[in-house]
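Quick start: load a record and inspect it. Here is Leucyl/phenylalanyl-tRNA--protein transferase:
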Amino acid sequence: MIPFLGPLDPFPPVELAREDMGGLLAVGANLAPDRILDAYRRGIFPWGTVEGQPLWYSPDPRMVLFPEEFRLTRSLRKTLRGQNYEVRFDHDFPATIAACSKTPRPGQDGTWISPEMMNAYIRLHELGWAHSVETYVEGDLVGGLYGLAIGRMFYGESMFSRCSNASKIAFAHLVRRLDEQQFGMIDCQMRTEHLASLGGREIERNKFLSHLRALTATGEARTDWRASNTEFAW
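Running the structure step on this input writes:
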C-alpha cells in the first residue's frame, strides 16, 4: 500500500518506492517550499497530483546527466553558433513553466504540471531556488526549461519547444553555465530518448543518492541567475 502523508508526516525511506508504479513512494502532504526542498534533498520529487494530493516519486534507476558528459553534436554546435536566437536566464519563469504545462508528451494523457504545481514552483522561483532557461527568436519565447538548484546540484523538471532545437539550445546553455559554476550533476528523473541523445544515462538510486548528499551539502540557493545572460563561445 502507498502511504498517505499528513502535513507533518516525514517521507518514508526511498527503498519503499513501488518500482511497478514508476517509483511512486507516497501520496499527500503539501507543496510548501520547505516540503519540496526536503524531498529533493532526499532524492524524491513531486510528479503531478490526484484530487489535489501530490504524488511523490523516487525511481530506481535514475536518469542523470553529468555536465562533462554532455553530448554536443556537430549539428547542435552549428545551431548554437547561429545568430538568430537569444538565451535568457530567469527572464520569465511563469511563462516558461506555463509553456511546459501545455506541451503534449508521448504516452501521457494531459499534463502533470497542474495549477497547484505551477504555483508551488513559481513560489520557489521567487525564493531563489527554481530557475528557467529560455530561448527567444525575434523576441518570442520559443523554447526553454525549468528546474531547481540546491548547492551544486540541479534538478531538471520539464522543457518545451515551439520550433526546431529550441529546447536543446536552452539545455546546452544550462549545461555550460552549470559546468562553469562547478555543478556536479543534473537530475533528469526518468529516461527519455531525447535526454539520452544529449548524454544522459541511468544510474542506480544508491549511487544517485551518494552523489546527491555530496553535492547538496552546502545547501544554499543560487539566487541571481540573470547575471548569466551572456553569450558562450561554441
